[in-house]
Amino acid sequence: MTSRIPRDSRLHLVRTPSPRAERRAEAERGQGRGPLGGPGAVTQRRARRPAPVPPEGTPAPAELARMARAGLAGAVRAARWAENALRPAPGTARLSAADRPAAATAPPCAAGALSDAAAERAAAALDVTVHQLRADWDAARLAGLVEVHGTAARPGWRLRAWDRDDAAVLRGWVALFDAWSLVHPAPAELPPATVAETVEAIPQLLSFLQLSAGPVPVPQLLDLLDQRVRELRTERCEIPYGPQEEPRRTGGDPGTAHADDVPLAELLDWALRALAAVDALTCADGQATLTPLGSWAVWVKLEQICVAAQSPAGNIEQSAEDMLRGCARLRPNAARAEYRAWLAARDAGSAVTELLDAARGEDALLRGLAFEALRVVGAPAEPDVRAVVDVASLRPYALLWLAEHEGTDPEDVHLVLTREESTWLWVDTAAAVADHGEAELLVRHLESAPQPTVPALLDEVRTVGHPRTVQVLVALAAAHPDPALAKAVRRAAFQVHTGGV
């Protein structure tokens, strides 16, 4: 009779294998199974693709890093000033009330800006103008040299590695390069919609500059921009209703090139000046030329796209949802490579929106993978992730993402979740395993529950309100080898289904 009584057993229900057995099992999983143990996973034991060789004439990484350090010297000085002046004690970097960023009243692009008093202090200390100081501060934030979270400022990890790690320097410069439209914002009088189209079209212009390997006349870039903007509108099927005037012909005069009468010449001029501000290109005598840094960065992004196109998954042209499904059976490193390539082919803002839309769906596996892809995006995704914190299905994932982004110790990151949020996340992850994994993995998932015992887990799972609770409990009962525990789980599933206690 005692076998019919639910046991108050601890959640260590699967015997821990020996290290040798774990290594053997891991090798077997790598050959025939994905991260959720399903059959037919893409193996990572394929022949490695030879390391790509940069175009002839590309400086060595050490020389590129030297150029990046020179271009960001002012940003580094501003970051080091912030490290010393705005941090009252080791381990903290709290701004005084007078120096707090005006995030509550300023537009998003100005969040984290120094107050007038702080900017004047910094400019005096560094012997630069206030205008230059603000530009250096913005560059430091965008390059990851300094991080501002609410009212806290602290040096970024790249600042600590700046003098010794060339790879960190180049990643910091690329982060600034990716944010070129924020470094030098578009004039307010330009139409916001066409500014966004220009930002989306610029990668094609940069690719053309890189493949040209030399100066390109600005009128030729203007024609290319006009063509690309029209393609973007055609892809969106933006067909105006009602009678329309005949489109104005430019007669071959590139100075008056328009897409639906929008002054593209002004937009191109803004984009070229913004890219020049981050040392990505130079523009003189009516011609634009990529700098060695700019040419290298564009080549890297094109190479990422090519790698994705040649990969087993080949997700470069897929939607976010299809891309995530394609990555579901890849091992973590291969999946991150796919995320990076997919992101490299898109504007960061639209990519983040698409990933969050995929995360809002019913598939819990896609929800977790979407936030893994957002970890690859990094800082540009922070405002959008903060905006979904109040969405019930995304809240635990968003809180964990933000905690990791703000530098919380990986071992303590789970502490940002309440017990109820942790339980909801456990059920959501179990739903992903039940849908895409194997029974053994669902049983092992018990070990990650926030509750110490099975009865405590079932009590809290019954009240957490996850829409997949019943299905998860039924699948767990069917998979678990302990008859008494399986019966208790089935009873809990029935109580949730009928609304009982």
Write a brief structural summary.
By secondary structure, the chain is mostly helical.
Structure description:
The protein has helices at residues 19-32, 61-71, 73-85, 116-126, 130-142, 157-161, 166-178, 180-183, 192-212, 218-235, 264-277, 292-310, 320-327, 332-344, 348-359, 364-377, 382-387, 395-405, 419-436, 439-444, 454-464, 469-479, 483-498; strands at residues 146-149, 152-155, 216-217, 258-259, 262-263, 281-284, 287-290. It starts with 18 loop residues before the first helix and ends with a helix. The strands form three sheets. The protein has a three-stranded antiparallel sheet with strand order 3-7-6. It has a two-stranded antiparallel sheet with strand order 1-2. Strand 6 (281-284) and strand 7 form a beta hairpin. Helices cover 56% and strands 4% of the residues. It is mainly alpha-helical. Helix 12 packs across helix 14 (332-344).
Task: Write the SSE topology.
Elements: H1 19-32, H2 61-71, H3 73-85, H4 116-126, H5 130-142, E1 146-149, E2 152-155, H6 157-161, H7 166-178, H8 180-183, H9 192-212, E3 216-217, H10 218-235, E4 258-259, E5 262-263, H11 264-277, E6 281-284, E7 287-290, H12 292-310, H13 320-327, H14 332-344, H15 348-359, H16 364-377, H17 382-387, H18 395-405, H19 419-436, H20 439-444, H21 454-464, H22 469-479, H23 483-498
Antiparallel strand pairs: 1-2, 3-7, 4-5, 6-7
